[in-house]
């Protein structure tokens, strides 16, 4: 069961504006589901951002491969993929 005191502790933590906005819209009668959905939405945004960075890094790697036509060393690949 959801504990209202836990919500107070979460809201007291420093967080982004979107996190506070998500918690401000929580209906305490359906709080467990509301909070679970807010957390899932946050994870989805993080995953989407990570995927975008990964695709950008792979595109940079492809550009380098087109220019040099050489095999890359492990260090070169790590430098290109550094995010």
Written account of the structure:
By secondary structure, the chain is mainly alpha-helical. The chain contains four helices and no strands. It is 76% helix and 0% strand. The longest helix is centred in the middle third of the chain and has 38 residues. The two termini are 40 Å apart. The model has no long low-confidence stretch (mean pLDDT 70).
The largest sheet is:
none
Number of domains in the coordinates?
A: 1
Helix content: over 70%
Q: What would you call the structural class?
A: mainly alpha
What's the overall geometry?
rod-shaped
Count of β-strands: 0
| SSE pattern, N- to C-terminal | HHHH
Query: What portion of the residues fall into strands of 2 or more residues?
Result: under 5%
Distance between the ends? 40 Å
Stretches with pLDDT under 50, minimum 5 residues: none
What would you report as the Rg, rounded to the nearest angstrom?
Answer: 21 Å
Mean pLDDT, to the nearest integer, reads: 70
Q: How many helical stretches?
A: 4
Task: Supply database-style keywords.
single chain, 83 residues, mainly alpha, rod-shaped
Itemize the secondary structure elements and their pairings.
Blueprint: H1 4-12, H2 17-24, H3 31-68, H4 74-81
Summary, kept brief:
The protein has helices spanning 4-12, 17-24, 31-68, 74-81.
């Amino acid at each position: 069961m959801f504990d209202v005191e836990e919500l107070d502790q979460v809201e007291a933590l420093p967080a982004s504006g979107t996190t506070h906005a998500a918690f401000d819209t929580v209906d305490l009668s359906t709080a467990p589901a509301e909070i679970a959905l807010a957390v899932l939405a946050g994870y989805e945004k993080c995953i989407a951002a990570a995927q975008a960075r990964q695709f950008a890094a792979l595109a940079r790697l492809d550009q380098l491969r087109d220019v040099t036509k050489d095999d890359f060393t492990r260090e070169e690949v790590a430098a290109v993929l550094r995010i």
